[in-house]
Structure formats: C-alpha cells, structure tokens
Amino acid sequence: MIGRITQTYYEPSNHTLLDSHMWKWTPSPRAFGSRFLDFLYPAFCELCKAPLARGGSLCEDCSDQLPRIKAPFCGNCGEVFDGRLDEEFRCQNCLGLSHDFDFARASLKGLETSFHLVHAVKYRRQFFLARDLARFMQQTLEEDERFQDYRDAVLVPVPLHWRRQQWRQGNQAYELSRELSKISGLAHCDSLQRVRSTQTQTKLNRKQRLSNLRGAFRVKRRYLKELRGKRIILIDDVFTTGATAHECTRILRHEAFTSKVAILTLVRG
Ligand SMILES: [Zn+2]
Ligand SMILES: [Zn+2]
Fold this sequence. Notes:
Layout: H1 2-5, H2 17-20, H3 29-40, E1 43-44, E2 51-52, H4 60-65, E3 104-109, H5 112-122, H6 129-143, E4 154-157, H7 162-168, H8 172-184, E5 187-188, E6 192-194, H9 206-213, E7 217-219, H10 224-227, E8 232-239, H11 243-256, E9 261-268
Parallel strand pairs: 3-9, 4-5, 4-8, 8-9
Antiparallel strand pairs: 1-2, 6-7
Helix pairs in contact: 6-8, 9-11
Bound molecules: zinc ion (2 copies).
C-alpha cells in the first residue's frame, strides 16, 4: 500500500486554454518515485482489495458493478427515475425551478460505493483514482446525445477555496477534469476561482445554499477573453441541489460571456 499512498501527488495548474489542447503530463520527481514503487508493490482494487495485475485502481468486477445512471432520468438535473418512462421527464425538485445551466448529468448513482470513491479522492487524497473515475464520465459524454452540442466545449472544474485546497492538498473536481481532458481530448481550463470561503453546505437547503454561495466565485482575469463565446462543461464530483452548478454557470456567463454551460458530475447525490 505504500506505493499507492505515495501516488497522491498534486501539481497545481499552470497551463492555459491555448496550450491545453496539446497538454502533456510532465511527471514530477515524486511521481517518478511512485511509478517505481508501483512496480515494486502490488496494486489493490480500491473497493474489494483484490490484487490488480494490470495496474489501475478498480478491478473489472467492481467497475462493472458500479451503479451507472441510465435513462430515464430528469432532463434538467439528472435525478434518477426508477421505472419506465417514454417521455422527457422533469423531476419534482425541478418543477418551477430555473437553472442557468443547460442540463446536468451524472455518471453514477449516489450509492455507498460511489461515495466511497468520492471520499477517497476528496479526503484521502487518492488522486490516482481520478484516472479510472474519469472513464465513467467519458462514457456519459459518449452516451448522452445532448453532449453532441459540446464537442468543442471546454472542461472547467468547480474550484475550492485556496485554504481548503491547501488543507486537502488538491481539488477532486480539478483532478477529474484533468483526467477527462486526457481521455476525451476536450480542453481543460482551471478558470474559476473561489474567492470566498463558504460554510459547509451539507445541512443547508437549496435556497440557503444559493445565498451562501453568492459572491463566492469569479472567473480568473487571464481567462476572460479565452472563454468568451465558448461552450463549457462544468466538472464536479457530486451534484446535490445544483446550487453550486447554478452559481458557477451564472458567473461564467456574466463575467466571461460564455455560451451554453452543461454540468457533468461523477455522482448524483
Ligand atoms: Zn474490486
Ligand atoms: Zn430534476
């Protein structure tokens, strides 16, 4: 397990939208060390702890069993509907709500295994997991026809406040966005900034979350021109009430004059 722990490096973003199309991963000396240790130590599946002969972080069985979201789901927020539906469906939460974003989609249902993986990346700094998790997000990009309109989109991760990022030594949304960019070929641009630290949102309802988030984000000045008119796919780990997604979309559209914004998260909470 030592090899796994040492893989939890973090490299802050330093590439711009312009160079992100030809962006290459440049391993840090620490990453070289972890690769070496990976060679010496057997790797284990994060969920069932079975040894993995060919690397990666999840075994084939656990990967297959992850609760993927398939239709029908809410056309607005991605909420899963258990049953059959032939028409486009809007969930109870979305009736009478207006979101700034085009639509939100998630790849996995909010069940125990999904949250285990999110927590491992978020709180245990197991950023290497993001490589495998981004593959599920790529499947969603390919399966959901609505993303056809986003073939030239830019992936933008939901940012953490720098203090929280320092504490966690990374940002899970950033890691997912970066890995998804490598798989999909879409540009990745770490263009949003969290300028105000907000209290934890777990116990707040949507209305309270929205007012809690007001003024919390801004677009980094150096990306204002580059994002103008671009379609955006906002990347985060979990979609819960949509308050964060709504506020980030509002800021992207009002400050950088981006075109449509769609949301893609790993999990629908
Ligand atoms: Zn497994
Ligand atoms: Zn909904």
